[in-house]
Fold each of these.
Amino acid sequence: MSTRCTIPDLPSERLYNSWKSLIPTLVLPFLNYMSRTLGKPLPPCLPSILLCKQNNCERKITKILCLLFDCE
């Protein structure tokens, strides 16, 4: 029979505390973002994002697929 852990271990406590301190800092920026963007179309995506200011940077390509579940 396996024993069940009823008291969180130290890594679990640290993770919980980090989320507990982070989440309140995200609420206002999220609400501001939602009020600016709710019901408005998304702007077109640029074909690429260039962060390198020099011409000799190695280029890497990452494709991202976004699924919008709240669109009607």
Note: The chain has one helix and no strands.
Amino acid sequence: MEMTKSVQQWTNPFYLSQFHFAYKRLVLPVFLVALLVTPSTQALTVAALSDSFWAVSCYVALTLVIYHYLALVVKKDNALTRLYHYSRNYQVLFAALLGALPGCGGAIVVTTQFVSGRIGFGAIVAVLTATMGDAAFLLLASEPITGLGVVALGVVVGTLSGLTVNYFHADDFLRPNKPEKAVCDVSCQKTSEDLTQVQQHAINLQGMFWQWMIVPGAVVALLGSFQVDINQWLGLGEERIEWLGAVLAIVCMLLWALTKELQDYQSTVAEDDKKAGSHPMQKAAQDTNFVSAWVIMAFLAFELFNHFSGINLTESLAGWGLWMPLVGLAVGMLPGCGPQILVTSLYLSGAVPLSAQLANAISNDGDALFPAIAMAPKAALIATIYSSIPAFLVGYGYLFLFE
């Protein structure tokens, strides 16, 4: 009897929860600290973390703050989004424009409206072709001219793709009669009741962190862009600003790790949910740390591979030139923004050519593919395949003409 009672006690969910490995994302900040205190990897880790924080995260945060403040002004229900309901060809153009907006909000709106019968299948292809998801923030922050060019190219290619699809398919092509499950659009977000106390505190601290860092971070990032020696300019010791950036990057990753548990593929590669009515700074902070996590993983993977293998990854991948657009296209077909940020990070590191970045930008659907798969899986699959065709043509067209 006593043994049975003991077994029941230790199989009780309360006791089991004490040994549950929660917050698997904590592996990242713990790994970063380990690299930072190991003499053989310390220098490259400081350099990678500092670059990712000052040169990427601060610019991304500033871009996202501007974006989220503008999103307060430009609501979903406005003249622009209503106008495209009056013409199937206008639908395609406006869907491509919504998809070109950095992030996944515009693409998710178009996806839900297709299922509800308000727009046609051509618009779905247009928006999924035009969108870059969160990778657009990274590219625009790091290389604004290239980023604007890629976004503009996405609008043109998305519009042409949508118009072509309209010629061959009716508006209700593959539209489900009754969606199997309800789907949240950009206005359907988590409430505070969905979060644990630890998660809520971590989310709040993310907002506070970037509220205080946005201005000094932007100043340091701007001075760095003009090749100003920050340590000398501020009268600091050697590599002080680099170490500060590395520490701040780890703080960001620690807060990011505590805001959400990894449960499935979507929770790993998609941006974190945000509460309805969150302050623009709070939304920007959560998205910035998500982008930063993938950028840090890409930067460190690149540097660690070069360090321990003795192989220059940039030179090695140069031999793959003919295959690189196809690799970028294949990664782009994966749902979620994480893999796409990885490709963009490798492009910014010089490891992959612009042709691969272009193929990835056009083929990738970002987080918008998750609600599309949930509501209309057949339409999502065909739309993804259709978007891969122009991605192939653009990627290899640029490769043969300019690289």
Note: DSSP finds 21 helices and no strands in the chain.
